[in-house]
Structures are given as C-alpha cells and as structure tokens.
Amino acid sequence: MNFTFRFATLSLFLVSAATALAGPDSHYDELFDESGEVRAHYAEVFKIYSRLSKEQRERIRKKSVKDFSGDNALLPLPRVIPEDEFEGTLKKGIEQRGTALRMFIEDYFSGK
Predict the structure, then answer these.
(1) How far apart are CA 76 and CA 55, in angstroms?
(2) Are 32 and 20 in contact (CB under 8 A)?
C-alpha cells in the first residue's frame, strides 16, 4: 500500500496504546485507532520514531523547545494528513482562506 504524505505544521503527542483505549469519552487519537493499532498513514513515521532511543527523542524535544520557544515549540511527530483527507477537505478550505486573505490585503493597500 502506497501513501502520499503531506505534513502539516500541527503536531501531536505520542501517546500509548493504553491511552488510546481509555474510552469513548477520552479523546480522538491521531496516531492510534480505536483498537490501539497505529493508523495506516502513521505507520512509516511511527516505525522510524520507535527506533529512536529515549535519549534521542529527548534531544529532539529539547532542540525543538530551544529553537521554537514558548507556544511555538514543535512536538516530536508531525501531524500526518492522508492525501485523500487533504485533497477532499483541507485543500478547499486552505484555498478559500488564502483567497479571502489576499482580497483583504488588496483592499487594504489599494485604499478602497
């Protein structure tokens, strides 16, 4: 199975499968499905992340906090958006917001 990945600037917390199974009132887990399995579109990213030692993961986290301080700190894994979700839903919304922002800026700077 081939996947085309698009990485958003949003990130996620790596949680355990036990957390994913906490119950229906807990939270939606981006990484694990309801049965505790890694979602298909995260399989490759999770495989690579799982190979990192605890020290390597901590080094990545600390570098992120240092480089992107405060609220801009990145979490260790990017949010993976499957191509069908991006193409079917997100792309239209991003284009719409980009168009609205461009029109606002054009109006503002044209003096209209």
Answers:
(1) 13
(2) yes
Per-residue pLDDT reduced to its tens digit, 39-68: 999 999 999 989 999 999 899 888 887 887
72-84 mean pLDDT: 79
Going from N- to C-terminal start, the domains of the chain cover: 5-82
Upper half-sphere CA count for residue 99 (Cβ side, 13 Å): 6
Mean local confidence (pLDDT), 18-44: 78
Sign of CA dihedral 95, 97, 103, 108: negative
Tell me the C-alpha distance between 112 and 96, whole Å. 22
d(CA 108, CA 112): 7
Residue 110 has pLDDT above 70, yes or no: yes
Cα dihedral: 30, 88, 9, 53 (round 10): 40
